[in-house]
Specification:
This protein is an alpha/beta fold. It contains 7 helices and 6 strands. The protein starts with a strand and ends with a helix.
């Protein structure tokens, strides 16, 4: 098992914690990460853009004028796409962008994302934040003491002070362990784990 320093809110080492090699030290395959991130982003698309074609437009189907003898081009009906207020040709229709990824692949991609953070020395552990109040300045002070920018914080506790203090800080996001995902792990440069969350992460991915 690999050992990682556990820091306090001032950036001082207070202990060490062991990380499971089966989760934090596995080979990383970019193709697997790509598939899962693509799945996550696709699932966010609503796919509700739609237009009315000529069968959806309200109007009569009566022929506007006779076929021959008027000198005009042939015209079928008022709902023709060539006329104002008619149907739209080849417009977007409601659809789903979702595509499935195997559960095992999702789990593997999450392990790979965590392993990449550990391998690149972008994974840090803090014993606790101990924020006495909702104050953005206090949380910024902690991240500065740790020397971290663009950081994803993972906790297993319903720490209201932590979540609300992080709301107005750009390039900082707080997630509970059940919300841990590949996209956010790769989006943020650094990963900061609250020490108590490690056991829960390993239990989820074991």
């Amino acid at each position: 098992m690999a050992a990682v320093d556990v820091l306090n809110r001032t950036g001082e080492k207070v202990s060490e914690v062991d990380l499971s090699d089966d989760i934090f030290s596995i080979p990383v395959k970019k193709s697997v990460l790509h598939d899962v991130v693509r799945m996550q982003l696709a699932s966010r698309r609503s796919g509700t853009a739609t237009v009315k074609d000529r069968s959806d437009v309200a109007g009569s189907t009566r022929k506007l004028y006779r076929q021959k003898g008027t000198g005009n081009a042939r015209s079928g009906g008022i709902k023709s796409p060539l006329r104002r207020g008619g149907g739209v040709i080849f417009g977007p229709m409601q659809r789903s962008y979702d595509h499935k990824v195997n559960k095992k692949v999702k789990s593997l991609a999450l392990k790979m994302a965590l392993s990449s953070k550990f391998e690149n020395h972008e994974l840090f552990v803090i014993n606790s934040f101990e924020l006495d109040q909702i104050k953005t300045k206090d949380l910024i002070s902690v991240t500065r003491n740790l020397g971290l920018k663009k950081v994803l914080i993972i906790t297993n506790e319903d720490d209201r002070n932590l979540f609300l203090s992080a709301q107005n800080i750009p390039d900082l996001k707080v997630l509970k362990t059940e919300g841990l995902n590949v996209y956010d792990l790769l989006k943020y440069d650094n990963l900061l784990l609250v020490e108590s969350s490690i056991q829960e992460i390993e239990g989820r991915l074991a």
